[in-house]
């Protein structure tokens, strides 16, 4: 599978140091994180809060280890703040990623999101957008897509637990209401399975719009416990709901087969946030790399 070097494999720093909960991995240095990524056999990374923002410094530090930047997360507030505010912040983020050689920009709408709230029950309190908010989101994302296209880049929308675009139905609506030229999709296995969606159906339905992939596995027993015990997203992460591919309940083989058959080009990013003191990030990175090699040949 994946012949022709069109698909590259990255790993996100969130298993080492967690931007949503900086206390997780607070003691792990940036250099340890990227050195272990390279040693585990990855060729790219996304951007974490410990990464230097000076692009020359960042490029040199990464290239010493054979790593590139695949992309980085951007929080949009299109449903809750003026469009200009999100657009201005987006341009700075886009230009940083352009300088780092990335082609896609991860965007997630955070208007009314509960993903960062420690005590809010994830399955009871996620936002549900009104028609007016959907309109603001679609228009705003298309504007961000135009700004990305100015630099020959794309935005890839990150559906996410605890946000207004979480379920398969919400992803369908977002895809239907946006121009495929302007808005692409980031496919994150972990968020779909945690939400209770059919992750393969979403993949097959939107495969032509998928231009970035997050490979995240789910411990299904913990996902059920989060629902039953009304835990928050951050409590779920701390409890270990996510893990690396091959260690949880998701079968990634059909994901790789479908992406390969569709001629997918771009990055696949292992992204498995858990407490680094409970799950050694280097050990789990090696485990993920081995599973992907065995399952996809990559
Ligand atoms: O892509 C992601 C970025 C994180 O900050 C987020 O919380 C995580 O779950 C994710 O999928
Ligand atoms: Co993700």
TrEMBL record:
Annotated ranges, domain Xylose isomerase-like TIM barrel: 38-294
Catalytic activities: scyllo-inosose = 3D-3,5/4-trihydroxycyclohexane-1,2-dione + H2O
Residue ranges that the Swiss-Prot or TrEMBL entry lists as coiled coil: none
The keyword Iron belongs to this UniProt entry's keyword annotation: no
The protein's required cofactors: Co(2+); Mn(2+); glutathione
Keywords, ordered alphabetically: Cobalt, Lyase, Manganese
Class of this enzyme: lyase
GO molecular function list: myo-inosose-2 dehydratase activity
Pathway involvement of the protein, from the record: Polyol metabolism; myo-inositol degradation into acetyl-CoA; acetyl-CoA from myo-inositol: step 2/7
EC number: 4.2.1.44
HAMAP family linked: IolE
Family: Belongs to the IolE/MocC family.
Identification of the protein by name: Inosose dehydratase
Gene: iolE
């Amino acid at each position: 599978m994946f012949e022709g070097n069109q698909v590259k494999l990255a790993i996100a720093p969130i298993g080492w140091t967690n931007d949503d909960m900086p206390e997780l991995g607070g003691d792990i240095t940036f250099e340890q994180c990227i050195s272990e990524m390279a040693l585990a056999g990855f060729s790219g990374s996304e951007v974490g809060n410990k990464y230097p923002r000076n692009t020359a410094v960042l490029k040199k530090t990464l290239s010493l280890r054979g790593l590139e930047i695949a992309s980085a997360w951007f929080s949009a507030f299109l449903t809750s703040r003026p469009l200009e505010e999100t657009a201005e912040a987006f341009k700075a983020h886009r230009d940083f990623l352009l300088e780092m050689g990335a082609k896609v920009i991860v965007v997630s709408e955070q208007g009314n999101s509960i993903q960062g709230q420690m005590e809010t029950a994830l399955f009871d309190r996620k936002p549900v957008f009104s028609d007016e908010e959907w309109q603001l989101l679609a228009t705003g994302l298309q504007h961000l897509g135009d700004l990305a296209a100015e630099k020959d880049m794309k935005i890839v929308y990150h559906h996410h637990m605890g946000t207004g675009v979480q379920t398969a139905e919400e992803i369908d609506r977002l895809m239907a209401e946006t121009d495929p030229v302007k808005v692409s999709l980031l496919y994150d296995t972990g968020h779909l399975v945690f939400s209770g969606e059919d992750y393969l159906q979403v993949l097959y339905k939107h495969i032509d719009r998928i231009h970035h992939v997050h490979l995240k596995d789910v411990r299904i027993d913990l996902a059920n416990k989060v629902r039953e015990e009304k835990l928050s997203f951050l409590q779920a992460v701390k409890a270990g709901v996510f893990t690396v591919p091959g260690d949880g309940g998701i079968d990634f083989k059909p994901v790789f087969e479908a992406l390969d058959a569709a001629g997918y080009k771009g990055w696949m990013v292992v992204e498995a946030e858990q407490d680094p003191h409970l799950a050694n990030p280097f050990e789990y990175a090696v485990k993920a790399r081995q599973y992907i090699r065995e399952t996809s040949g990559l």
